[in-house]
Design brief:
This protein has about 100 residues and is an all-alpha fold. The chain has four helices and no strands.
């Protein structure tokens, strides 16, 4: 039973990473097509370059939309994709598992 739970968690983590990488690539493409093309090629091969990994880690940290503040303080940031602190941790953990420094 624990094995099934671990696999499900792995699939959920992969889904989070895929969702956020797609958003990151779309945003990057608007500002730097060459960097986005290089990162997309690496993603499709299953290996981001150190530069792309660093940029993804910075992007996901800067784009956390659920801040944990109360409503008066502005609980959520307007953004095209919802990113929780747990999502950020998932992406950072995935990058570390790929051998990147985060």
């Amino acid at each position: 039973m624990d094995t099934h739970r671990t696999q499900q968690t792995g699939a959920e983590e992969r889904g989070t990473v895929e969702r956020l990488v797609a958003a990151w690539l779309a945003e990057t493409e608007r500002y730097d097509r060459a960097a986005a093309g290089e990162a997309r090629a690496g993603w499709e091969r299953g290996s981001l370059s150190p530069r792309a990994a660093e940029e993804l880690a910075i992007w996901v940290t800067a784009r956390v939309t659920d801040t944990g503040f109360n409503e008066d303080e502005g609980r959520q940031v307007e953004a095209p994709v919802r990113i929780t602190p747990a999502d950020k941790d998932t992406v950072h953990g995935w990058l570390r598992a790929q051998g990147h420094r985060v």
